[in-house]
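Q: I'm building a small set of examples for a reading group on sequence design. Run inverse folding on the following structure and report the sequence directly after it, with nothing in between.
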């Protein structure tokens, strides 16, 4: 069983991957502009004076309620502390086997559904990491609330045109968000306002669920003999980084690596594109689109140079927890010899996720 080829995917993904990799490229007559080298990508992500963060995850503008330090008013988040990371990964290690056992009890003999199975362990892991002051009942309630908000956001984010303010999708999203914010308002020692905590939790749950599912998909479609779990995690984030593209808006006319980009333009950075550049990745140039965790035994290149966690002030504050959870999951998947039960298609409606990753185990 295989994972569908990212290289031959259509849509935005295909447009970005097939763009010429020379300098800064305009994807349409007036942009958006695509960066194609790590140096350009770093300039865009770190120069916050010329490249503004759009910062509207829910397409509702509500994040502007936060008193942020960047122009868009979107606060930057402090990186998780080592204690928070340890707490989060311990919860994941506890709850993942429980989720597997519950599936075995409820649907014996049926293939596991990675995205479904990862929901609660990841949601509780991120809640436990970030909500040190909450009781277990509160963390459970908030975890369920974040998952409900993520689900309600999906139709809003993936719609071709932003749904109207009073559309059913918007109303459902608002209701789920307010329910979550009310639950968060009861928690002591929140990281920021309930709105900011909700944003951080949603980012810290939706993305790792997709990343974990990709990891299981890749390991399930390959021989896992002798694979180092950390190498498997990096190789997954190289081939299918869930946040495969991010955008900034130019605040003035800018010179980007010799190319003039006008004020108000959208500039794109794609970890997925950068992860396919031969000078950032060890191994044969022809083999770059393939999953080969062993390539990272060659330590002449630094894993992560393709920015799967971003860079600059908006870089991922939860990267250490994200990596720790992925490495733990990879260790489990390798020990249990996961196998894909069906072809995996690519869902690009919201970041990059496998459109159902069904797998079985052999141990
Ligand atoms: C493997 C897992 C993860 C991956 C691949 C990932 C990836 C990313 C990327 C690429 C960005 C930057 C987006 C941009 O520049 O537009 C980001 C931002 C963010 N991530 Fe993660 N992330 C992961 C896990 C987590 C976790 C566990 C948390 C929370 C505990 C988290 C919280 C956030 C937040 C709050 C932001 C927004 C930062 C800001 O705008 O200032 N992420 N993540």
């Amino acid at each position: 069983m295989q994972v569908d080829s990212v290289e031959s995917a259509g849509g935005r993904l295909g447009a970005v991957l097939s763009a010429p990799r020379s300098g800064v490229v305009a994807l349409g007559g007036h942009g958006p502009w695509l960066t194609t080298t790590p140096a350009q990508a770093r300039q865009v992500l770190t120069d916050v004076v010329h490249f503004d963060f759009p910062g509207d995850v829910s397409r509702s503008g509500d994040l502007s309620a936060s008193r942020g330090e960047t122009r868009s008013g979107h606060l930057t988040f402090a990186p998780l502390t080592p204690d928070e990371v340890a707490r989060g990964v311990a919860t994941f290690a506890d709850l993942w086997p429980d989720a597997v056992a519950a599936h075995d009890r409820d649907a014996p003999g049926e293939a596991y559904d990675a995205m479904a199975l990862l929901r609660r362990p990841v949601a509780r892991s991120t809640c436990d990491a970030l909500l040190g002051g909450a009781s277990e009942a509160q963390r459970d309630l908030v975890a369920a609330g974040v998952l409900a908000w993520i689900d309600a956001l999906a139709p809003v984010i993936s719609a071709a045109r932003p749904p109207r303010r009073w559309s059913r999708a918007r109303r459902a999203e608002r209701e789920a968000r307010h329910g979550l914010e009310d639950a968060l308002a009861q928690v002591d020692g929140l990281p920021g306002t309930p709105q900011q905590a909700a944003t951080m939790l949603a980012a810290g749950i939706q993305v790792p669920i997709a990343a974990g599912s990709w990891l299981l998909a890749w390991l399930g479609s390959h021989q896992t003999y002798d694979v180092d779990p950390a190498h498997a995690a990096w190789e997954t984030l190289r081939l299918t980084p869930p946040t495969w593209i991010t955008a900034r808006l130019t605040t003035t006319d800018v010179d980007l690596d010799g190319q003039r980009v006008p004020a108000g333009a959208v500039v794109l950075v794609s970890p997925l594109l950068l992860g396919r550049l031969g000078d950032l990745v060890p191994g044969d140039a022809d083999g770059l689109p393939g999953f080969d965790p062993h390539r990272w035994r060659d330590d002449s290149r630094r894993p992560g140079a393709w920015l799967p966690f971003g860079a600059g002030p908006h870089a991922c504050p939860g990267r250490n927890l994200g990596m720790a959870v992925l490495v733990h999951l990879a260790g489990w998947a390798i020990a249990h010899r996961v196998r894909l039960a069906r072809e995996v298609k690519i869902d690009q409606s919201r970041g990059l996720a496998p459109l159902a990753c069904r797998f079985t185990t052999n141990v």
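The CA atoms of residues 191 and 266 lie 30 Å apart.
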